[in-house]
Design brief:
Shape: elongated
Number of helices: 9
Radius of gyration: 33 Å
Oligomer: single chain
Number of domains: 3
Strand order of the largest sheet: 3-4-5-8-7-6
């Protein structure tokens, strides 16, 4: 009889609902923040007995006693404070808290030195504010921690490991788990979801060529499931990224490590993806068991080669949020660490080739670059970066992020990346020597000899190139090559300059007109934006830039300024008192034409051979005189 009454009481509290292939228990009995605060204030001891539920091992939910002490408020944040004799471990975030059978909120914060506090203090996110937060999904003030009575309350960690690139989020702790895809998943045909069960949220999932699947995830606890099937968890922000798509699943708990340093739950077998989190905000994360939103996950294919031979292939799925490029960097870095990319301490070069496909029929953006490992000394310390990290970060920061965060609603459909590791010496080419005449005869194209050498002198390269000059644009000199220097007036000397540089200095030394074309402040539309990006990608680390500047022929640039197209549309008077709004934007680019007094000529050189990297920040400048032959 007692068992029957207990069973009936369970079904009074929980209602059974089915969504897709997942069964959930919805819990309608909630206690408002006001009711919680009133209970505490009316208690003679100013404290109320309560408990939270979480899983310590396997899938069995366990009850932990706590004492609710009151409500803490600061602008933008409200917490219910509690004490307990139990340790709060990573993975308990979101554990539902109850008073007299009514849910008051989610376990969310703990004191950062709680191992030394007797009893342990913590914070509970009120369920009423979680419901409000889930509906809005937007908060103006993200809160990562708060102070009370000299104690710092921080979000309960979500995993046992620090992940490179994500140290500043979710308490800095995540899980990297791995399992063979075929037959080893935690198979439940209809997993039953209820408050207190573990929830594993994926930021990244990848599968290698052998079918082994791994993920960067965070483990917490389900706080609440409402009558419509919405899932509430964590009780504090994950990445605080507002609108998101994270896949989630449940898992077994192998055990709980109650260490003095960093206690945490150990994740075991995981279920398949059961739904999607779509809001990541101040008081928690929220989603549903619908799988439709998972279409918004970002797909990458990544290939590893070593000296041209394929060694690994990965299919990668990355969460959708404003943080996607940062998450992608963490994914690439951790895949490289796990699958044999060059070490930071190892001399190597990495060649990277990429293709980004876009929806809407636009041409794909392709790029190829070569990068070396490097080290920088700071006193006694040395900062090292592997060639793979340098290559992948350049791609994700300068190319992928540019396309991901564009202003033209361009959508990336697929990303393909191939990296080729070449171990050994870093093989960075530096400018070894060059030869150029200090007097160039007017009308005769000078010859440049140039040599590049790596520090190990393995394979120096040299080139002799004729500098093609359109002499009709150059001011004609008055002095011959035999004219004695003391007989010359400096104002009449026609000088030129040759500049030899890598990509970094080339961009920094563009004229104002060139910068407006290559690095414009605005674009005429998506096609112009993509075309400009492709042009900039051509300036890669395999290019040597040689430019010759000469005094322009008298009147040449004056004519250019006079013949320049008007900026304003026809018929616009200068006497108007108001600004003229050019409706629909510009149809062609407007470039400032300045009389800079010089004409520029570029010299083309072949790319550096494969496997060798050109130093980016070198520059040599040589000044010469233009003279008459006789």
């Amino acid at each position: 009889m007692k068992s029957l009454l207990r069973l009936l009481s369970v079904f009074v509290v929980f209602s059974f609902v089915t969504f897709s292939s997942v069964s959930v228990f919805a819990d309608p009995k909630l206690m408002s923040l006001e009711e919680t605060e009133k209970l505490v204030d009316s208690s003679p001891s100013k404290a109320v007995n309560a408990y939270f539920e979480s899983v310590e091992r396997g899938i069995k939910i366990k009850r932990y006693d706590i004492t609710v002490r009151g409500v803490y408020r600061e602008p933008g944040l409200t917490m219910v404070l509690f004490t307990t004799s139990h340790k709060i471990v990573a993975g308990m975030s979101g554990s539902p808290v109850y008073i007299n059978g009514k849910k008051i909120g989610a376990l969310a914060y703990r004191v950062n030195n709680f191992n030394f506090s007797k009893p342990s203090w913590g914070g509970i996110s009120p369920i009423s504010l979680m419901l409000k937060d889930a509906d809005s999904g937007y908060q103006s003030k993200p809160v990562k921690a708060f102070s009370y009575r000299g104690m710092i309350f921080e979000p309960i960690a979500l995993g046992p490991q620090s992940i490179k690139g994500l140290e500043g989020f979710a308490g800095g702790k995540f899980m990297i788990t791995s399992q063979i895809s075929q037959g080893a998943s935690f198979k439940i045909k209809k997993p039953v979801f209820r408050a207190g069960m573990p929830i594993v949220v994926d930021l990244v999932e990848w599968t290698d060529e052998k079918g082994e699947t791994a993920s960067i995830s965070a483990m917490g606890t389900i706080t609440h499931i409402d009558d419509s099937g919405r899932v509430f968890a964590f009780g504090h922000p994950f990445l605080d990224a507002k609108k998101v798509v994270y896949g989630f699943r449940t898992a077994e708990v192998v055990g709980t490590v109650f260490s003095e340093d960093s206690p945490f739950k150990l994740s075991g077998k995981r279920s398949e993806i059961l739904g999607a989190i779509t809001v990541d905000s101040l008081y928690g994360i929220y989603g549903s068991t619908s799988l439709n939103e998972l279409k918004r996950l970002h797909h990458f294919s990544l290939k590893f080669k070593r000296e041209g031979k394929s060694i690994h292939e990965f299919d990668i799925k990355i969460a959708d949020s404003v943080m996607t490029p940062i998450i992608a960097q963490a994914a690439f870095a951790n895949i490289g660490k796990a699958y044999g990319a060059p070490l930071a301490q190892e001399s190597s070069v990495t060649q990277i080739e990429s293709r980004i496909d876009l929806e809407g029929g636009y041409k794909p953006i392709t790029w190829k670059g070569l990068f070396a490992s490097y080290s920088i000394k700071f006193g006694a310390a040395t900062l090292r970066s592997s060639s793979y990290d340098v290559a992948s970060e350049n791609f994700l920061t300068n190319i992928y992020d540019t396309l991901f965060d564009n202003s033209y609603d361009l959508k990336i459909s697929n990303v393909s990346v191939s990296v080729n590791f070449v171990p050994g010496k870093s093989r960075v080419y530096k400018l070894g020597a060059y030869k150029f005449p200090n007097k160039v005869v007017y009308g005769q194209n000078p010859v440049l000899d140039i040599m590049f050498v790596d520090e190990n002198n393995l394979m120096p390269i040299a080139k002799k190139v004729t500098v093609a000059i359109d002499w009709s644009k150059v001011e004609k000199p008055v002095y011959a090559k035999e004219t004695i220097e003391t007989e010359k007036v400096s104002e009449k000397v026609i000088r030129g300059m040759i500049r030899i540089s890598g990509a970094e200095f080339f961009v920094n030394t563009l004229s104002s007109g060139e910068k407006q074309k290559l690095l414009p402040e605005y674009f005429l539309g998506p096609e112009d934006f993509l075309e400009n990006l492709s042009k900039r990608l051509e300036i890669n680390n395999q290019k040597i830039f040689i430019r010759v500047a000469l005094r322009a022929k008298s009147g040449l640039l004056d004519e250019a300024i006079v013949s320049a197209k008007d900026i304003m549309p026809n018929g616009i008077s200068s006497d108007d008192d108001e600004w003229y709004v050019i409706k629909g934007g510009l149809k062609d680019r407007k470039v400032t034409i300045k009389n800079e007094g010089v004409v520029m000529f570029s010299v083309g050189l072949p790319n550096i051979p494969d496997g060798y990297v050109l130093e980016q920040n070198f520059q040599e400048i040589f000044v010469f005189e233009v003279v008459l032959d006789k």
